[in-house]
Amino acid sequence: MARWLGLFIVLALAGGIAWRASLPPSPQSATIAADAFSAGRAMADVRVIAARPHPTGSAANTDVRAALTARLRAHGFSVRTQAVFLPPRAVKRLAAWGDPDARFRQAVSLIAVRPGRNPALPAVALMAHYDSVAGSPGAGDDAAGVAAALEIARAIPASAQARDLVILFTDAEELGLVGARAIFAAPPQDDPIAARIGVLINLETRGGGGRALMFETSRDAGNLIRLYRDAVPTPATTALAVKIYELLPNSTDFTASKARGIAGYNFAFTGGAALYHSPLATPDAIDAGSLQHMGDQALALARPLLAVSALPAPAPDLAYGDILGLTTLAYAPAWGWLIVAAIAACLVSAGRARRDWRGARVAGAMLDGVVAAAAVAVLAYLGNLLSGADGKTNYYDRLAALPRLEVMALIAAAAGITLTLALAPRHRSRWDGWLGLAALNLLLLVALQIALPVGAPVLAWPLLPAALAMAVAARSPRTGSLLAGAAAVFGLAAVATLGHLVLLSVGIATPGAIAVFAPLALLLAWPLLPEKPTRRPLLSAVALLCGVQAGLALWVRLDPLAPSVAAYDPLA
Ligand SMILES: [Zn+2]
Fold first, then answer.
1. How many whole angstroms from 225 Cα to the centroid of ligand 1?
2. Closest CA to 267 of 235, 312, 310
3. How do the domains of the chain map onto residue ranges?
4. In whole angstroms, what is the distance from residue 174 CA to residue 55 CA?
5. Which residue intervals of 390-429 are DSSP H helices?
C-alpha cells in the first residue's frame, strides 16, 4: 500500500508540474515599464481589430486596415499597401463564405518600415495577418499577432535600432496566404521589401490560449536557436516539434518567407482550440496571458536582432528544447552520443552490481515496453472511434471536444500501461523489469539519435536521470529509490508536457500518437511500483478506466454541435 501511495504522490507532483509548465505567464498590466511587453496595452489593439469579423474584402477589413495604418504611423513607420487580386481558390473560399463580389476582391497587405541607423543593413521583420475568417472576430487568429507586433514596435524605441524594423500586416492569409505569397514572390525590381529582410518573426495563433510555442524556424537555424536559448526567458520550443511540423501539411504566412529562404522564427499559441475560427473568439474570450507569452518571446528576440551589427548567419541545426518552460538547452546534435554513452554506462553498471536478473527475462521486459505502447495506441484508437471519429465529423466540433479527447488519451495511456503490468509474467524480478525497460528505452534513443538527432533530447533528457537513479539503486537501494522518485517526477512531467503538445497538434485525429511515450513512462514508474502486484485489482482498474473512457467518448459523440464551430462550417 505504501508503494501505491508513493506512486500516486509522484504522479500528482509530476501532473502538477506539467500543468504549471503548460500555462502561459500572467498578462502584464498596461502600467509596467515602457520597455517591457504588456498584454494589457496590446489588448487595446486586439479590441479594435477584433470588434467584429473582418474577412478580406469586407468593410470591417478596410476599417481595420485604416486603424492599423494610423497606429503604425504613430509609432514612426512609413506605411504603404500592396494589393493583389485573389487567385481562383481564394475566390472560391471567399464566395463560399457568402461574399457575392469575391472575384473582384483584392488582398491588401500593409508594408511598414521604421528606419534604423544604417538602412543598408538587412532589416528585421515582424509579420502577422490582419484578416479573419468570415463569422469570427478573430481575436486570437490573428488580432493577437498583429497587436503583439505593434506592442513590440512600441517597446523598442527607434533610437535603439541599428537596422530597419519592417512590419508586414498581411491580408487574405485565411484564403491561402495570398498577401504573404505576393510579398515574398515578388521579384526584387517590382517590390524590394522581401529582399531587404534578414530575419523575420511570424506571429500566429490557432485557438485562444495556452503557451506560445516557437514551433518552426528557417533552415540551418543553429545560430537563431543559440539566440533563442540566450535571449528568451520564458521558452517553449523543441526541435522535435519543429521537425514534425515540417512533415505536416499545415501552413502559415511563414511558409512563404521560408520558401524564399529568409531566416526566421514562427510562433503560435494553440491552446483553447475551440476558439479557432470561432464566432466566440472575442477579445474577452482569449487568454491575455498567451498574448503575453508570445510577445515576451518575440520582443526578447527582436531587441537584440535590431541592435546588433551582424545578424545570425546560417549554421547547422542544433538539438534543443525547453526544460519545463524554465530554460532552453541547445547543443550540436553529435553531443547526444555522449548522453547515449552515459545512459549505457549506467545500465552496464547496474547490471554488474546486481545478480538477481536473467537475460531472457530482461528481454521479456523489453517486450513489455513494446506491448505497453501497442496497448496504449489501440485503446486510444478505439476510444477515438467511439467518440465519433468513425463517421462524418465537424473539424471545429472536434477541436471543441479536445479537452475531453485529451483526458481520454490520458486514460488510455493509464489503462494500457496497467494492462501490461497485469499481463507481465510473475516470475520476473524487479531488476529483470528495470534493466529490460531501460535497455528498450536506450535502444529507442539510439534509433532517434541516428534518425533525427536534433529531436533526441525529448527522450534523452528524461532517460538520463532515470538511468542514473537505477545505477545508484543497484548499490544503495534507499538513495536509489529517492533518486528514482525524483527522476520520475521530472521525467513524467516532461512526458506529460510533451504529450499535451502532441495532443494539441494531432489529438483529434490520432490521439494514439502519445503511445510513443509509453515505454518511457513505464520505465519511470517501474521502481515505484510494487514488486509483484496482484493481477485481479489491476485488471479491475483497467476495466474501470476503459469504462470511464467509453463514457467520455459517448459524451463527445452524442453531445450537440459545439456553439464555437466556425460560422461558415455549421453542418459539415
Ligand atoms: Zn491565422
1. 24
2. 235
3. 28-331, 334-558
4. 8
5. 395-400, 402-423
Q: What is the C-alpha separation between 127 and 202, in angstroms, rounded? A: 5
- How far is 140 from 174, CA to CA, in rounded Å? 13
User: What average pLDDT does this structure show over 123-141?
Assistant: 97
* pLDDT (tens digit per residue) in 488-544: 999 999 999 999 999 998 999 999 999 999 999 999 999 999 888 889 999 999 999
Percent composition of the chain: helix, strand, coil (DSSP 3-state, to 5): 60, 10, 30
Alpha carbon separation from 426 to 109, 361, 432, 529 (Å, rounded): 67, 11, 11, 14
Domain boundaries 28-331, CATH class: alpha beta
DSSP 172-224: -GGGTSHHHHHHHHS-TTT-THHHHEEEEEEEEESSSEEEEEEEEE-SSBHHH
C-alpha 563 – ligand 1 centre gap (Å): 20
Ligand 1 centroid – CA 174 distance (Å): 6
Nearest to 152 by CA among 210, 213, 203, 205: 203
pLDDT the model gives residue 192: 81
Scan for cell 540551418, then name that residue.
220
* The three grid cell numbers given for residue 340, joined into one nine-digit string: 547515449
Encode 390-417: b = buried (16+ Cβ within 10 Å), e = exposed.
Answer: eeebbebbbbbbbeebbebbbbbbbbbb
pLDDT tens-digit series, residues 382-440:
999 999 999 888 999 999 999 999 999 999 999 999 999 999 988 889 999 999 999 99
Span from the CA of 138 to the centroid of ligand 1 (angstroms): 8
Q: Tell me the pTM.
A: 0.96
For ligand 1, the distance from its centroid to the CA atom of residue 133, given in whole angstroms, is 9
Facing residues of 214 across strands?
Answer: 267
Reported as half-sphere exposure (CB side, CA atoms, 13 A), residue 515 has a value of 21
The one-letter amino acid code at 54 reads: H
Q: What is the 63 CA–ligand 1 centroid distance (Å)?
A: 19
Q: How far is the CA of 129 from the centre of ligand 1 (A)?
A: 7
Distance 24 CA to ligand 1 centre (A): 19
166 close to 111: Cβ distance less than 8 angstroms: yes
DSSP string, 490-544: HHHHHHHHHHHHHHHHHTTT-GGGGGGGHHHHHHHHGGGS-SS--HHHHHHHHHH
**Helix or strand or coil: residue 441?**
helix
**Mean of per-residue pLDDT scores for the chain:** 95
Q: Which range (19-28, 188-197, 472-481) has the least confidence?
A: 188-197
What is the 84 CA–ligand 1 centroid distance (Å)? 19
CA of 547 to the centre of ligand 1 (A): 38
Among all chains, which residue has been given the C-alpha cell 554506462? Answer: 345
